[in-house]
Design brief:
Length: about 210
Amino acid sequence: FVSTKFSTPQTTSPRLVVLLVLECCTLNNCMKGWLIAFIMTVLLFPVLYLLLGLKIFVIYLLIWVDKIVIGLFRPLRIFGFELTTLSSVLAAIFYGPLVSFFLTLIIFTFLQSLRYLVFPIQPPDFPLFVPNKDSIIYAVGGLAAGFLSSLPFSQVVIFTVLVKSGIYAVTDILIMKKSRYFITLLGIITTHLLILIPFGIELMKFIG
């Protein structure tokens, strides 16, 4: 006896529909996040450039790229690829330690919070748009850079990296009883020496 099975049209599972909808929503949210961040940045372009000048504009742009673009790709952090240190050093050289401190603190806090607000990523354990450990440490690095701004650019950057990494290491030891920054310090310094410092030097020539 041979049974014959007739194929019947398969209906889409309700669960599958829900998963597809959620996936589309996640993609749409990500695209909306990029769009909102891009629009906000574009709207600030003429304001920063016309009212505050090219230098402030570049300082803001570097932190924007760091927090909005690089910040979404965590593996880049392992190799020390970040632009906020470079931005804070430029601010220190152009405007001095106190201005660098507050510029870095305000812009860093704003853009970091914006990233968590508009992108579908895990929310942080600190309130948005309020200075946190990261923004304060980077701001302190900018403050320290201001007192050595008369030194060669590469030395100021490396000094700022060491100060920032040292504070991170101490706070991690006190809070988590271990440090993750000693492990990546060599990669951070190497990335700055090979890529970010030469880029910063050319950027300073462009800004004038």
